[in-house]
Amino acid sequence: MKTDIEIAREVVLQPITQVAERLGLSHEQLEPYGHHIAKVSLSALEGREPQGKLILVTAITPTKSGLGKTTVSIGLALGLNRIGKRAVVALREPSLGPCFGMKGGAAGGGYAQVLPMERINLHFTGDFHAITSAHNMITALLDNYIYQHRADASKGLSEVLWKRVLDVNDRSLRSIVTGLGGSANGLPAESGFDITPASEIMAILCLSRDREDLRRRLENILLGYTHSGAPFYVRDLGVAGAIAVLLQEAISPNLVQTTEHTPAFIHGGPFANIAHGCNSILATRMALTYGDYAVTEAGFGADLGAEKFYNIKCRAAGFSPALTVVVATLGGLKMHGGVPETELKAPNLEGVSRGLANLDRHLDNIAHFGQSAVVAFNRFATDTEEEIELVRSHCAARGVGFAVNTAFAEGGAGAEALARLVVETIERRPSQPLRFTYPLEASIQDKAEAVARKIYGARQVSFSAKAQRQLRRIAEHGWGDFPICIAKTQYSFSSDAKAYGSVKDFDLEVADIVINCGAEMIVLVMGSIMRMPGLPKSPQAERIDLVDGFIEGLS
Known about the structure:
- The protein has about 550 residues and is α/β, with parallel strands linked by helices.
- The chain has three domains: about 5-125 and about 250-430, 3-Layer(aba) Sandwich (Rossmann fold); about 125-245, Domain 2, N(10)-formyltetrahydrofolate synthetase, CATH 3.30.1510.10; about 445-525, Formyltetrahydrofolate synthetase, domain 3 (Roll).
- About 35% of the residues lie in helices and about 20% in strands.
- It contains 19 helices and 25 strands.
- β22 (about 505-515) and β23 form a beta hairpin.
- The protein is globular, with a radius of gyration of 23 Å.
């Protein structure tokens, strides 16, 4: 089969104005970035209420190579349009870190891609760069404030929380010392870098309802504490307006198209293992406003992405999905059934059977939220009919809809069965209004216990001494009503990345707590999860090249 980038190049793209016209967007509401990409003005939402049905695509616990969730999301939108439904897909923007590190891209695959994939995977419309610049501008202004007031104890800070970000996997920058080389270079201080998708500004951009809400959230970013113990915010620097200026274009959703010219809103890109893992509220609202069906996804497995989609994004936006689609693969099921990674492509009915416990846990969790669910079986060439029938029969016994998806190889035609299943399920058995895992007024400890026990299957949650100090500050300053965002490994229900399957009755420790007053969520860091990833021994960058004017190695 042709590579993703070869398939992408063969598609004759429609002018973005034509894609917009089919949605009902006017030329005045677009800011074109070339012929095939455009920013959509927030004015397109004024005076209009979302009327579409929201479909969330999530997955079982993934393998290191993933499960093809983005490909399924795009394929489902293609399939819905092929059966006569007006569908729009809303996805996150790819990060350069994993693009050049592990994945080579994140714009779908095969004949189910968003295009132009090279530009989407690389600099796109500059949203990530704007977020990186805004975050680091705050850092520079804060460092300057500390330097300029170094002799004034009443204006100094006793603790600085705000670090730096970069959209590159660079483990050497996790912990650094700044200000070396003499007083003219500032004051020596410990600092560090997170990856841009972990930036609080990324979360703020994705959770803001409009420009006013963006400005309000920026003002509320917690930067540190004064010598008297009082919180010090961006508003105390007096620079929220300047940071909003840097983000004035980035807040507008991006419109592109798929391999079959289905409209696609691509906007924002927080990771789900270290952030809340969902595209922007504004892009999803656009999709719901201009489509009868809006397909979106949340990162990694349902225990991370879907949980945060429901408890954080939907709560903030007032969304309630009509249906949740759970992506499963034989490779993923076999991994959770104890099959070695080197043998996942070989037939193994026993391994598949054991791995179904992982699928069942995710289906049970989704039902906990009041959600109806169907299983999208993402088929690969090495899958056998006997193995597929085992999964199909298991889903039938549970009363859960099941459809094989081959959109990677066949485009929308390969997702028609899934599309019909989705439409029929929404019509016959739509989801109930969302039931959240915890009330906002519960304590942070109780919220952590609720997610850990109900979603992860943990026995108990403890808090390190460092985390307990943060809990006291949260209680003291009234930040306890925020939802929680748990940062942990994506490869297991537990904090042990190698504990596959349906592991239960384990203990979890909250090692650290990051207070995001602007994003209005409390990040609980569990296990050894890093907010700045490292590169593998053989990064994907070794296979990316420019050959005769054409980019190679992206997927």
